[in-house]
Amino acid sequence: MNAAGSGPVRTGREEAEREELARLLPAPAERDVPSEPYLHHKDRLMQHIDDDQNPAPAAAPARPARRRLLRPALLMPAAGLALAGALAVTLTGGGESGNGSAQPRETAAVLLDRIAGVAEKTDVKPVREDQLVYVKSLMAGAELKEDGSSKLDPLHEREIWKSQISKPVIKIGLIHEDGDYFPLNEGGPGTPAGVHRPTYLWLSSLPTDPDALLQELYRMTEPEEGHEKAQAVFDLIGDLLSENVMPPENAAAIYKAAAKLPGVKRVDDAVDAAGRHGVGITRTDKRASTATEWVFDRDSLAFLGERRYRTEAIGAGKKGDILEKFAVLERGIVDAYRERPGATTK
Hints:
Layout (H helix, E strand, L loop, with lengths): L7 H17 L10 H19 L37 E6 L5 E3 L3 H14 L10 E13 L5 E3 L3 E8 L7 E7 L2 E6 L14 H5 L5 H11 L8 H14 L5 H12 L5 E7 L5 E9 L4 E8 L5 E8 L11 E13 L12
Antiparallel strand pairs: 1-2, 3-4, 3-5, 3-12, 5-6, 6-7, 8-9, 9-10, 10-11, 11-12
């Protein structure tokens, strides 16, 4: 037997009272999410999802691409030392939106897309096979020791003339450094134009679709032991940008392809070997504990140079140690070795 005032009758009365009170209360207001923070967090989430769903393309084994030609004294020894993601989005306090919230910073993908747009509109004169690409640079490389420590050589200027002949050649170029000229000669039957000797004509043969180009770059690249495949591709792109002249549509494609690499980030203030400040694009090789950073002019978005440095201490090597830095001072097309753009041969 139920006690007085309990049971189904009382329960029904309580529910009716709650419904009546609910009708009297005002409807809850919709949550107003500020647009900028919402877009920022949505952008971060979508980038993580995209990174997870778009792994690095599979690639066939290939010969490792050669790094920029350094003087023999600056080449890294073959020691057993490991040397050399989502696009980063952070909030900055540099500006305010209409609702007073911080605005999301430009991502690496957006910056690279702007750089690609400028590159595509750049007027570049095609280079004939009987001509040479000339690049004057300022550079320094580190000599690495077995204990992991490194010593950065003093900065010095270098001039290089690069052959544009497509067929295999023995003399592929000439270097002027420390007051002397050094011919760049290949043994055997010579080296044809290709990833190990990029010419204007060979560069023009690369795909201009960023996805197809990225697949091709992965196919042509083989990382050194202890290095990431994506980092090897990133470094290869840096080499192609540094001491070559590239057709505008191919330059645009290569920047767009770089934006698709995992772990590429934007740097607010990057400095090249000449001390010029600009914006940067960087990628860290977590396996090798090193990072490569490209530097672009803040206004023109022209490629200025790059640098490599340690991201962690390795043996006697310290975090932040510079392994290589490079700055393009002049680039042009000439008709003969030892000729400078706008000048006669010497």
